[in-house]
UniProtKB/TrEMBL annotation:
InterPro entries named in the record: MT1864/Rv1816-like_C, Tet_transcr_reg_TetR-rel_C_sf
Organism this protein belongs to: Streptomyces hintoniae
Keywords tagged on the record: Transcription, Transcription regulation
Pfam families assigned: TetR_C_33
Taxonomy of the source species: Bacteria, Bacillati, Actinomycetota, Actinomycetes, Kitasatosporales
Coiled coil: none
Protein name per UniProt: TetR-like C-terminal domain-containing protein
Domain (HTH-type transcriptional regulator MT1864/Rv1816-like C-terminal) ranges: 54-150
Highest rank taxon of the organism: Bacteria
Key word GTP-binding present: no
Amino acid sequence: MGSLAERLGVRTPSLYKHVGGQDDLTRRIAVLALTEAADAVGLAVQGYAGRDALAAAARAFRGFVLDHPGRYAATVGMESSGPDDPLAAAGERLLGAFLAVLRGYDLPDADVDHALRTLRSLCHGFATLQSAGGFQWSADIDESFEWLITFADRGLRAAGRGTAAR
């Protein structure tokens, strides 16, 4: 908190008028990040279905993580304190955007949670690895990301009931 106060040009005690400490500050950053990510993904998927919606959501999510790696990092492992926690509401909005994508795949209800976790793992893993400079070999990163989208689309179509939007 001391270095933050220094960067803001205020004394450390002045910060505590606005935040309750490091944990509160991190939670507020996580809420901001989830809200912004939900806005980006939600806006990106409007009017799309199937692979187009998946691609739009994945690209928007990846773009958010690459543009705001520190904010996004604050969301990882952050748990909601209850249904009235703004973190819960922001997280639900982001999940809602990805659920909209999954509706285009006509998945059995029992598979939706698994599909959400799979998409989060794919998008989170790729974006955080890229953000950390984790792709050091010669293949084009954007081509690899498009390959990931195609891979996820094929898997979701296979898991669906065969009526996914094309």
